[in-house]
Design brief:
With 367 residues, the chain is an alpha/beta fold. The chain has 2 domains: 9-42 and 271-365, Aspartate Aminotransferase, domain 1; 58-270, 3-Layer(aba) Sandwich (Aspartate Aminotransferase, domain 2), CATH 3.40.640. It has 14 helices and 12 strands. The chain is globular, with a radius of gyration of 21 Å. Bound molecules: pyridoxal-5'-phosphate. Pyridoxal-5'-phosphate binds at residues 37, 90-92, 116, 161, 165, 192, 194, 221, 223, 229, 234.
Amino acid sequence: MNKGLWVNPHIVEIQEDPFLKNHRKPHTENMIRLHMNELPYVHPKVEEAVKTWAENPKLNLFPHGEMTRLVEIFADTIGVKPENILLFPGSSPALDSVLRTFTYKNFRMVYRIPTYGHAYQTMKINGIDPIPVRPTPIYSLEIEEILEAFDLYDAHGIYLTNPHNPTGQYLPAERIWDILDTIPDSVPLIIDETYVSFADTSFIGAADLIENYPNLIILRSFSQAFGLASLRIGAVISHEDNIEVLRKIRRDIDITPVAQMAALEALMNIEDYERVWEEIENIRDDIRDKLLEMDIVVYPSETNFLLLRVAQPDKLSYFLEENGILVRVFAQPSWMTGHMRISISWKEDMDKLLRTIAKAPKEYIHS
Ligand SMILES: Cc1ncc(COP(=O)(O)O)c(C=O)c1O
């Protein structure tokens, strides 16, 4: 019998993903980490700035809350006004704050499955009724499917990751535009653009739409694109009226000085990151071609990962782990169990992945 406290039913309903229970592998030097979409790069100037900070870290002081310069440079980088940006300790807490602020009791939110697991959890935690849309095949969402579900379920909001985790598909800005032109102005459209830096260079993201669409809320993260996952920093980008309301619940002291400083240094060196993103994209496309040559189903991707379909992903992932490579498998839902996601790292790591897959028992890959 459960001897703990009464639990909010929304939280009881959350199904824990068995993979996530043990996915936080120790940072052993000799493992190739292709399971969490981390960037295999830290900018030398960011590292240097962190080391300089560590010489006199003033650990006893609360963080400085304004972050003016960082916000200005970020706004300039993505072509919005500083008033359109609010920083958070990661894009996941940003989503939580957005949902707490702009949703209400019995709020129905259309979203695409499979999706980034934490987004589903955050919806549930906030008492939202998630309305799943499952495109068939899973990598090819059409916005009409989203809009149909929105009408059918008389929904109140839409959440999408774009480019999408875990399929890698992206919807061009014009398609996002179409959604915005169709739904009422009062309906929040939340677009998580965590992976947008790895998308086709002609894709500029939805940030330029916010002036015209006050119901558009964009989430960005410094975790993957800037390789700052351990420091926890992300942002909401939206109309300034939304930002003003969010400011009331955002605790600015939650963003550590070291995260602020590293993000600032990263943005000041954005050209170097652009080169890294391009290299990752090239490696991704090359690996996809090679996996296709091995007759493995691999979906097209505009992210720093690829989604594959293989006969026995569990066995293949154990085999890879024994050979020093961590990948992401999907234990649920049942129709995802044939899938495996691999993050893109440097060529040397990816070549090792290919060699290891080639050595794996054939029945793990083909049925
Ligand atoms: C779609 C998506 N959003 C957000 C995140 C995490 O962002 P953050 O580290 O800024 O909370 C991830 C990480 O895996 C993700 O896949």
